[in-house]
Specification:
The complex is a heterodimer of chains A (359) and B (75). With 359 residues, chain A is of the alpha/beta class. Chain A contains 14 helices and 14 strands. The longest helix of chain A has 18 residues. The longest helix of chain B is centred in the first third of the chain and has 15 residues. Classes of the chains: A alpha/beta (359), B alpha+beta (75).
């Protein structure tokens, strides 16, 4: 079986009991065992795995997890087939980056090299705002040492280069490799030719979303059900934008709003036509993020997060304080159509809980 | 009644995730082994390898592969 499934990715390891291990080599040679075998040292491995039979089969999946401890013999082939179907999970070094990339719809960028390379790269980033912004918006950036993660490095295109070079590798949020770029000669304080780098970043970023298309779809949906559109103008660099997104995703909030509102989030700087749409909704004054507006089904702004004050309109942003939350609830009260008192009460409770935890 | 439905749905969803763990019969004493399942496997404390070098068969090197560990004996 080891040969039959080898090219699908099966590896068989034989661990011989400590007892009788002196016969192992001769036996293996005689029977022509093709897979790696070794003798257990003083039953340590047997004890660690809880082995209590002969033979006993244990199966580890592609992401390195022990899935089956002591499988019935006749189940082994079927279980092997099942696990071969499963894709490899995210490498542990990428777990956090992968989760963030998934949440924020970004890709992962790994710089493979030592600390000196990483620092040289970061200096160049700081000196080049345009593509640095793109990098920060589009990628979760990691710096990894190839010696610590040799298999991941090899899979990412790193070839053990010395000298002044290093490798950048791009993957999607699930850890699938998209491409790599060898940077040969980046001397400290020399910017070199950044065109290949910008081309690489542009090539592997998440395909840009069109804000106009999202907006049209939202209006269509609102018209069908005679709803309002609640637009969140977001800035990926604003922590409060992410907080607001989390607030609007809370179960109670979703349920309270889904009857009367189509929710739409526009990443002004990141979406195509984002700035245009923002100007259309917010006017020329841009101000702070996040910014909220509630429109009718034709797209006319009915009310926004700009709270009127003696000094002029002031954007409440993400509603945290009592005053901000009062204005947010006022925005809802001014525009809701079928929301029941019970749902509104839940909305208020969720807001309060959010406010308490966010402070 | 609702609790029964929720339990049923939960069982269904858990079954759908991954290779349906419970579809495959295990054997032997279960308490210790059941605890091992779902985690990284213990280290292999063994003598020299035949048909491979130690570097090729570390758990790190084997990531991405499905690994069948066959505990056997010739006595």
């Amino acid at each position: 079986m080891s040969q039959r499934y080898a090219d699908q990715g099966l590896v068989v390891l034989g661990i011989h009991s400590t007892k009788g291990a002196e016969e192992m080599e001769a036996f293996a040679k005689k029977s022509g065992i093709p897979f790696p075998i070794a003798a257990d040292l003083q039953d340590r491995t047997k004890r660690a795995f809880g082995v209590d039979g002969n033979p006993d089969y244990y199966l580890v999946d592609r992401s390195g997890r022990l899935r089956f401890a002591d499988l019935a013999n006749r189940e082994v082939e079927r279980a092997v087939q099942a696990l071969l179907q499963e894709p490899a999970g995210l490498h542990p070094a990428l777990l956090q980056a992968g989760q963030t990339a998934e949440r924020k719809d970004k890709r992962i960028l790994i710089l493979w090299g030592n600390a000196q390379r990483a620092s040289a790269f970061n200096e160049v980033r700081r000196a080049s705002p345009e593509w640095n912004t793109m990098l920060t918006m589009e990628y979760e950036f990691l710096h990894l040492l190839p010696e610590l993660h040799p298999e991941l490095a090899k899979a990412s295109g790193v070839q053990g280069e010395r000298a002044a070079g290093f490798t950048l590798s791009a993957m999607d949020a699930k850890g699938r490799h998209l491409g790599h770029l060898k940077i040969k000669d980046w001397v400290r304080n020399s910017f070199g030719d950044t065109d290949p780098l910008v081309a690489f970043l542009t090539k592997h970023r998440v395909p840009p979303t069109d804000a106009k298309r999202l907006w049209d779809e939202a209006l269509q949906q609102a018209q069908k059900k005679n709803q309002r559109v609640l637009v969140h103008l977001a800035d990926p660099f604003s922590g409060w934008s992410w907080e607001l997104e989390a607030l609007l995703a809370r179960k109670g909030v979703v349920r309270a709003l889904e009857g009367d509102y189509v929710l739409l989030k526009i990443d002004e700087k990141r979406h195509q036509h984002g700035v245009e749409l923002a100007r259309q909704l917010r006017g020329e004054a841009t101000g702070t993020w996040p910014w909220l507006a509630i429109t009718d089904a034709q797209g006319k702004v009915l009310i926004s997060s700009d709270r009127p004050t003696d000094q002029g309109p002031l954007n409440i942003g993400c509603p945290v304080s009592a005053k901000e939350q009062a204005w947010f609830l006022h925005m809802i009260d001014a525009t809701r159509q079928t929301m029941e008192p019970g749902q509104r009460a839940i909305l208020e409770k969720e807001l309060a809980a959010f406010g308490a935890s966010a402070r | 009644m609702t609790k029964l439905w929720m339990a049923a749905i939960l069982a269904l969803l858990t079954g759908l995730a991954g290779a349906g763990q419970d579809d495959f019969r295990r054997e032997g004493e279960r308490a210790y082994k059941d605890m091992l399942e779902g985690k990284a496997p213990p280290a292999l404390r063994v003598g020299p390898w035949m048909n491979a070098s130690a570097d090729d068969v570390s758990w790190e090197a084997l990531r991405g592969k499905v690994v069948l560990v066959d505990f056997w004996g010739t006595w």
